[in-house]
Each structure stands twice: as C-alpha cells, then as structure tokens.
DNA sequence: CTAGTTGTGTACTGATAGGTACAATGCGTT
DNA sequence: AACGCATTGTACCTATCAGTACACAACTAG
C-alpha cells in the first residue's frame, strides 16, 4: 500500500547539500529548493540538522575542509614536496571539475555569509597557504619568497574559478592551472 | 507640519544599491534590507526601477561596466600601453578599495545569479581581457603570450579579492597586485 | 499661484521563507 | 512477530518576501 521511500543517513545528505549551496549560494539555497532538488523532505533535513540551514552549511564546510586536509594539506606537509605540489594541482583540477564546480569557501567569503563562517573560511585558506609555503621551503625555496608564492597559487585557483565561470570556459581553467603550476616551481 | 524628506533621482540611487548588492549578494539583498540601509522607500525604488530587484541589479551592473569601460578598457585601447597598464593596477586598487570592496560581476558569476546576467558578466571580463591583451601586444609582447598573460592578470585580481576577504587581510591584496603588476611587464 | 510632473510613505496583496509538531513508516534486534 | 529507534511526509506556524496601489508632497514651469 505504501509508496517506496528512500532512507538516508546524514553522511549521504551532506554531498547533496554541498552541490546545492555551490550552485545557489547560502541565501539562494532555500529549504524548498533543497527538498525539490534532492527529494529529501523537511522532516529528514531537520532530523539530521536540527540547527537548520546554518547547520547544513556548516556540515558541508566541515566536509570540504576534511577533504582538503586529507588530500591536499596533509600531503603537502608530509610527502615529497615536488610530488605533493604536483598532486595539489591535479587534485584541484579534479575537485573543481576543471572549473565546472566552484569553491564554496571562496564563494561564502565574498558576501555577508562570511560573517557566519568567518573562522572556518579563514582557517581553510590559511592552512592551505601554510602547507604550500612549507612544501616550497622544503623544496629549497627561500622562506622570504615562499609565502607570497603560495598565496599567489591559492589566489590563482580562486580567480580561475571566477573567470572560467564568468566566461563559461573550462579550457581557460585548465590553461590557467597549468601556467600557475609551471610558474610555481620555476620562478 | 511635514517632516523633511530627501528627494532622490535614479542616478543617486544606483551607487547605494551597488554597495548593498556587493555586501549581500543578489539573493541576500532583500527589498526591506535595501530600504533599511539606504532609507529609500519602496515607493521610490519601484518608481525608479519598475522591473524590481532584477532591474536594480542590472542598473548597477551597467554602471560598473561604464566605469571600467571609461577608466580601464578605453585607456588600454587608446593610450600608451605601459602607462595604461600601470593606471589599470592603480585604478583596480582604488576601485576595489584595496580588497575592502568586492567585484560584483565576479560575485554574480559564482552562483545562479550568473544565469540572469550571463551576457553582461561575460562581456565585462571579455572586454577587459581583450583590451589588456591588445595593450600587451602594442607594447611588444608576442600575441601568442599576450592573451594568457591578460587572462592571468584579470583572474589574479578576482582571486586576490576572494582571498583578501577570506583572510580579512587588505595587505595581501596590495601585495598580490604589486607582484602581478611586476610579473605582467617582465615575464 | 496654480498645473503638471516627479518623487515618496503607507498600507496592502499573495506567495514563500525558515522552522515546528507529530503521527506514521521502515529497519535491526530479539 | 513485536519491540524500539531512526527516519520521513504532512500539516501547520509566523515572519518576511517581492510587488502593487494610491494618495500625498515637493519641485518646476507657466
């Protein structure tokens, strides 16, 4: 008699929410659009995230952070610097789908959503820059240059995401990343 | 008997709207927040912009476009390339208040707001890149490199805005712009 | 000092926002 | 099969959303 219904758990929901926040932004991601796009009802959403939309976004940011910590920052600190840096560019291209997917943390930084998640946003970029600068130093780069070079690489990825989306041109994203990768190790 | 009230005209309103859209994004800029922050009532807003919020945002984008056309793109096409490029960096720093103000066009590009203003957004960046690449060629740079170098500069400004806001660090913005300015003319 | 035009405040609309309450459903255990 | 708990759909709440209507105020021209 009853229609089939899918049973989720929290871990399944977070990646779905991530895509929605990415596409619509925090303010644009309304509860009704979330239920509409995911097929998950309010009942489930508030069961998993009693804190509502803010807790949903926080959970998404936490998962993004975990991913980068595991696949980017930690390798930069631990592994052979040249290899880890090469992996960083490869992972960034894959994660952001060659510009087809934006950086949620960067997007949140631009509008007033920043106030809600200021420390999370700050940490995400700070740890990225620190890890990359450390790897550059270990690879023999003078510490005086390393920080600026690291900032430049991280900022370049964010800019490439903005520009490739603005021009709707994924090729630009790949081209920009290649160029930045070369510049990071040579100059 | 009557309290004093300010009389506006459309041209006065657009810059006020611009700041609000910058700070709150398109979705976050609700009519009530607009009236609250500007002191301009709905009556006036719908008098100037019968098309509502969308027309307000379009007017803001048009004004931004006009500003860049006049003070950045046109000089890049017309004036001595080295001087125009130097002026571009100076104007970008001033316009974006050393990272204290974001690029509305870039911000709109990131979320679904892009769909509403796709061609405007595309044009803004396309004309910037074209004008800069042209200036680079006129300054003696091989055409094969000029386009990529121009893309890199424009993308770098967008990235610097994201990162300086994320880290709440205006010094980073200035530092990044200085470095990019040097790299653009030397490499 | 009127007449017409350009602005403005206030009060309203229907739709949708985020959030709550809760009964019913499905699943793992025994 | 019956218990208990995690999960879910539905109905509902109040606040706020974008937008409309319109009478009124201010400036501008004659």
TrEMBL record, chains A, B:
What the entry lists under Gene3D superfamilies is as follows: Tetracycline Repressor, domain 2 (1.10.357.10)
> Which keywords appear in this protein's UniProt record, sorted alphabetically?
DNA-binding, Transcription, Transcription regulation
Domain spans labelled HTH tetR-type: 7-67
What InterPro entries does the record tag this protein with?
Homeodomain-like_sf (IPR009057), HTH_TetR (IPR001647), Tet_transcr_reg_TetR-rel_C_sf (IPR036271), YxaF_TetR_C (IPR054156)
Give yes or no: UniProt keyword Transcription. yes
Question: Pfam families in the record, alphabetically?
Answer: TetR_C_13_2, TetR_N
Q: Which parts of this chain does the entry mark as a DNA-binding region? A: 30-49
Query: Which Gene Ontology terms cover its molecular function?
Result: DNA binding
This chain belongs to the protein called Transcriptional regulator, TetR family
Species source reads: Rhizobium mongolense subsp. loessense
Supply the source organism's classification: Bacteria, Pseudomonadati, Pseudomonadota, Alphaproteobacteria, Hyphomicrobiales
């Amino acid at each position: 008699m009853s229609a089939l219904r899918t049973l989720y758990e929290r871990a399944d929901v977070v990646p779905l929410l991530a895509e929605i926040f990415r596409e619509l932004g925090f303010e644009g991601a309304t509860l009704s659009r979330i239920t509409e796009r995911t097929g998950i009802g309010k009942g489930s959403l508030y069961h998993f995230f009693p804190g509502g939309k803010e807790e949903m976004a926080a959970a998404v940011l936490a998962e993004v952070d975990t991913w980068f910590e595991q696949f980017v920052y930690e390798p930069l600190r631990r592994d052979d610097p040249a290899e880890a840096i090469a992996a960083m560019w490869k992972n960034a291209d894959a994660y952001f789908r060659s510009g087809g997917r934006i950086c949620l943390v960067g997007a949140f930084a631009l509008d007033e959503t920043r106030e809600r998640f200021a420390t999370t946003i700050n940490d995400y970029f700070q740890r990225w820059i620190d890890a990359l600068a450390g790897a550059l130093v270990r690879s023999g780069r003078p510490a005086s240059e390393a920080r600026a070079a690291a900032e430049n690489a991280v900022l370049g990825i964010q800019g490439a995401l903005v520009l490739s989306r603005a021009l709707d041109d994924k090729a630009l994203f790949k081209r920009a990343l290649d160029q930045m990768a070369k510049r990071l190790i040579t100059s």
